[in-house]
Design brief:
Two copies of one chain form a homodimer. Chain A is α+β, with helices and mostly antiparallel strands. Chain A has two domains: 90 residues, Hypothetical Oxidoreductase Yiak, Chain: A, domain 1 (Orthogonal Bundle); 191 residues, Malate/L-lactate/L-sulpholactate dehydrogenase, NADPH binding domain (Ribosomal Protein S8, Chain: A, domain 1, 2-Layer Sandwich), CATH 3.30.1370.60. In chain A, 38% of the residues lie in helices and 16% in strands.
């Protein structure tokens, strides 16, 4: 675990800081506030790889002209239960928040709705958007094409696929919502980088080398690939998610994907999709939520394997983290604080501590 | 591999035989023909665990009164882009063929549609239904709650989840459609039984015992559980699929699941769902198909690992099998032929060879 600073920051302070940075980078205040809200939300729920750590790379890309800070996000195709958004190369957070709003509205009328986006950008953790319908007592699903390819087709060597994530959020009654947020690879690439930083070996199963042998030294990660979950099944899932979130929307997929770690200026044409499902169309919403509660409690009460202290539901740990960090504030590592100080200095705004 | 008979049966002969059996079991001729068509289709595409091998257990369940042979399958909830079917405990094939028809019709108007079912039954391979929208140039998705629990929650010992499958079918242009059909476990339970029959060991990763150690002797399979793909990720996926296909529809989930191998008479209240997405709502269908072709060709042309002869797309092997078995007829194992002979004898109908 990285060292954690003693200082804790209320979410509101982080929000103000990110909003100030985004405004300074050229976003209109209302848009800066949305991006700040969602990036802070990611940090609060413990998606630290998608939270404040992204401010520096977002700032770098915006300065390089790789993101349109004043996009005209618009519906280019529409039917009763679907819409296709052109994100006009704006921040992905803005595009997908809009997509979620449209999906929720259409699902209220039609029972279900699907909204895709092209010309979007990285939008943070998938669960942020899958969770948006929850406030309307709806189920949310989210698919995205990742912004760097780390996965070859099964049996292949060319990295043509990304860790294309899936997130699904299901409302419960008294229990926290069930929120699955998963990459289609065994480990996300960020976990490999973290192992390398700490000088640790990776477990067998995370990566393989070009001969198909297990690769466990994270310093050699450039010599191999991430393993898809369930082998060829995860490969198929990554491809399908890419077809639904990318190809269907006319967004980048396969070799068209821009590696946003290496290319800061090209339009990524990122594709994402959100689905909203209204359980109230299928029956009484309270009965549905009671059935979800019953299932959650039954799974949690299962007899446990030796050494297992608790059975967790998908998203339950993030939910607990969010509750704790809202109460106690955000604990940020000294490395992240230093990075945020650099961003503040470069932009000529007060740093997080002074915001 | 099981021994294969020299005799090959045209698909049409298998269809006539299954239809005769279903009629004799009490299904109206039109319904018997649909079930026969879909069971034969499963066999033709190589889903042999879901094809003709199911005739004997279906017959047993129908005779035990576990299936309604004259169901009143009806829409009980409906909005522009969704419907909920009550299958009235009919054969799952009839319920889900009807669900697919409704989803396709609604997606044509709304762009996307979702149709769930409760009080359905086992319907064969998931891909059969995901593929139905393909004939209408649409994408199909299918979710189902499996009919026997083989999976505990992650870290648990109580088998409360099934191998709940997901299938997605995406139309292509000149290439075969991309068809993913996967259980959320590393291996399906049928594969474990096949290993036991052949006296072979299972690879590490298929099953674990109650202490969490790898279980590789398929004869000891009752002492352990199937492993979900990607560990806790596959557990989450199995739960989410169950929530979408079961809980949302008011169908059985968790401890409510009836094990259809052990209980032949109780109503299973099986839940399934199908989604149809019309790519023509998102843009020009031919352009979409051309983009799918481009992606397929790019993945297939990837440099390969040593020893890998070909990179396969999801569903490409089933597609090739279907083409071959339509041309050459179905090759059935002597064990399966003997089983079908017994069914024919019990029902007093001509056996497959004489049909």
């Amino acid at each position: 675990m990285p060292e954690i600073s003693q200082i804790r920051f209320p979410g509101a302070q982080a929000r103000r800081f990110v909003a100030a940075a985004m405004e300074k980078l050229g976003l209109p205040p209302a848009d800066a506030a949305i991006v700040a809200e969602l990036m802070t939300e990611a940090e609060l729920q413990g998606s630290d790889g998608h939270g404040l750590i992204r401010l520096a790379p977002y700032a770098r890309r915006i300065k390089a002209g790789g993101v349109n800070v004043r996009p005209n996000i618009r519906v280019v195709k529409e039917k009763a239960a679907m819409a296709l958004l052109d994100g006009d190369n704006g921040m992905g957070h803005l595009v997908m928040q809009r997509a979620a709003q449209i999906a929720i509205e259409k699902a209220r009328n039609c029972g279900v709705a699907w909204v895709g986006a092209r010309l979007s950008n990285h939008a943070g953790p998938a669960s942020l958007y899958a969770r948006m319908p929850l406030a309307h007592d709806m189920i949310g699903m989210y698919y995205a094409v990742g912004n760097a390819n780390h996965l070859p087709p099964w049996g292949g060597l060319d990295m043509l696929l990304s860790t294309n994530p899936i997130a699904v959020a299901v409302p419960a009654g008294e229990e926290p919502p069930v929120v699955l947020d998963m990459a289609t690879t065994v480990a996300a690439y960020g976990k490999v980088k973290a192992k390398a930083q700490r000088g640790e070996q990776m477990p067998v199963g995370w990566m393989i080398d070009r001969q198909g042998n297990p690769l466990t030294d994270p310093k050699r990660s450039e010599e191999g690939f991430l393993m898809p979950i369930g082998g060829y099944k995860g490969y198929g899932l990554a491809m399908i998610v890419g077809l639904l979130a990318g190809t269907l929307n006319g967004a980048a997929m396969g070799s068209e994907t821009i590696d946003f770690n290496k290319d800061h200026a090209s339009v990524t044409n990122t594709g994402q999709a959100i689905v909203a499902i209204d359980p109230n169309a299928f029956g009484d919403i309270d009965e549905f939520k009671a059935r979800v509660d019953k299932l959650v409690r039954e799974l949690r009460a299962s007899e446990r394997m030796p050494g297992v202290e608790r059975i967790w539901m998908p998203g339950e740990q993030s939910h607990a983290k969010r509750t704790a960090s809202e109460r106690d504030g955000l604990a940020l590592s000294p490395a992240l604080l230093a990075q945020l100080d650099t961003v503040a200095h470069d932009l000529g705004i007060p740093n997080l501590q002074e915001t």
